[in-house]
Amino acid sequence: MKYLLDYQEGERVVAFCLIKNKEAGVASNQSEYLNLELGDRSGTIMAKLWDVNAEMKEWIHVKAVVKIDAAVQMYRGKKQLVIQRIRPAAASDEVQMESLIPISPVPVDELWAKLTHAVDSLKSATLKAIIQEALATEEIQDRLRHYPAGVRMHHNYYHGLLEHIVSLLTAAQSLLPLYPQVDRDVLIATCILHDFGKLYELSDPIAPDYTTPGQLIGHLVMGVEMVSGICRKLDISLGDAEVLHLKHCILSHHGEVENGWGSAVSGKTPTAVMFHYLDQIDSKMNALSQTLADMTEEEEWAYAGVLRRKVWRGY
């Protein structure tokens, strides 16, 4: 099956896709047009739709699934689509959602099995109880099995957050023998719960945006609120040393406060410091792998937004 990013300049594209973003404009002849960001499993591409009428404006909206007939053109060195025809997808089209959004290459059941194994390995009864309660509801399970880890920066695809968690758990288990000063159970618990606030910071797994609580509070504080709520429900003291340590690691995992990356406090324990760097490694390496994957064979350098500079492919 051919996806949006597989098409080359001059080719005709007839495909189903998801509208990820929409911006309206007025041409020099006063006709309205739309700049659309369209997506499918291969990623996203910008598209232009000219001569938009009132009826089209009603059903062309973000998160709508549409069928397009378009041509691929180059614009400022990047591929874009010029749409000739467009219609909303119908139930009879039987479009599979998995074909419309980028998805983790690792099967979700495989990731879930590794997550539950890590929970079972915890020796702390307190931390195990907190995580088991966090995973107990169908709503949380459903969100964790589908939500991305972010809108654009890293693991920004279907069940990307779960992949990120499992990747962190794997890295932590490999490095723990080197650093005996790190609290193993608190580190494992932080790997699992550090981004739980994103399950409510982000709007949905299909075309995610930031919710109002997500923008006003942020996922670090939202995650700590979730932990505190679970502790109250289970009658676990909020002054418990492991609970305090876990919440500290969550609140500090974006690094030094003065960096302005969103931490509420700078890391003050070996476990918190180690987790911050684990999270940095995994998030940045994932984002860089996506940058490299998007490069053409002719490209030697590409801009990586996660580093705010160009990176070299190296081969």
UniProtKB/TrEMBL annotation:
Keyword list, A-Z: Exonuclease, Hydrolase, Nuclease
InterPro entries reported in the protein's UniProt record: HD/PDEase_dom, HD_domain, NA-bd_OB-fold, NA-bd_OB_tRNA, YhaM_exoribonuc/phosphodiest
Gene3D superfamilies for the chain: Hypothetical protein af1432, Nucleic acid-binding proteins
Residues in OB domain copies: 23-88
Domain HD: 162-259
The keyword Acyltransferase appears for this protein: no
GO-annotated biological processes: rRNA 3'-end processing
Signal peptide: none
SUPFAM superfamilies: HD-domain/PDEase-like, Nucleic acid-binding proteins
Gene Ontology MF terms in the entry: exonuclease activity; nucleic acid binding
PANTHER family found in the cross-reference section: 3'-5' EXORIBONUCLEASE YHAM (PTHR37294:SF1)
The protein's name: 3'-5' exonuclease
Native species: Brevibacillus formosus
